[in-house]
Amino acid sequence: MPVPIIIDCDPGHDDALAIMLAAADPAVDLLAITTVAGNQTLEKTTLNARRVCTVAGITGVPIAAGCDRPLLQPLAVADDVHGESGLDGPEFPEPTVEVVPEHAVELIHRILMEHPEPVTLVPTAPLTNIALLLTRYPDSAARIREIVLMGGSTDRGNRTPAAEFNIHGDPEAADIVFGSGVPVTMCGLNVTHQALATPQVLARFEGLGTELGHICAELLSYFASTYKRLWGMPHPPLHDPVAVARVIDRSIVGCVDANVTVELHGQYTRGATVVDLHQYLDRPVNAQVAVTLDAERFWDRMVGAVAALGARHTP
Ligand code: RIB
Ligand code: CA
Description:
binds calcium ion, 9 strands, Inosine-uridine Nucleoside N-ribohydrolase, Chain A, 12 helices
């Protein structure tokens, strides 16, 4: 039976492919897409979610906009990484997929309470919407199967030396999520950097011979240009789909139990995930932390999803 999921995202090049994987892989049932400010403003991440669903032919999946700023700190977008639009690279047609009027937190809560079984939340952005859900609706926690998030890192950051972008984007929200008691799986940079979009991967998308495959290759080509420019990396890591892959097939993403604490006060470390892999601290296990990726099977599922969508729909 496919696992019911909701993806909470900030498209974002890697979020875009995470949406496609979640919409097309038969192991999951995408119930809703919610957006939050992060990579770009809420207006732009929501427009981008509509663009992705339009070109991928994803219909019947409600898109709801959520929070337009972090809980406490000001919004700081990643236009240096994802561009002015948040999805620079390809030209997108006018979106034909609309947004529902409900706030993301209200939509997630309603689905959680109405769905016949607990739902998995897959946040691939700052955790503002999820923290607000857990705070505004404590009853929702029992209806969440697990939270499988892309964020954090067992070692270094990518927004500061210590902090990864999604956690750094709203540390208080992340602290609420990791302290909620809901089962959490953290897919951090240490594992997503094993999902490198090499030229061979881009060739697989182009080789599909579909408009959608070409759009994915263009997205990854743009993403590669920013990773080369900003970090000198030859190939960009495709972060967000790794969290979806963990839900699709747990053997693709290997995890260990650990305590994860979000640093809120460090002058140079605010937003860092302090992952206690060796039980140095007397703090309880509160997360499964992803440490390994079967990259071959990951890319097979990712390319397979785009192939399935492209076969169904030519934008
Ligand atoms: O650090 C990577 C994360 O930050 C990804 O979710 C990417 O989309 C950005 O949001
Ligand atoms: Ca993201």
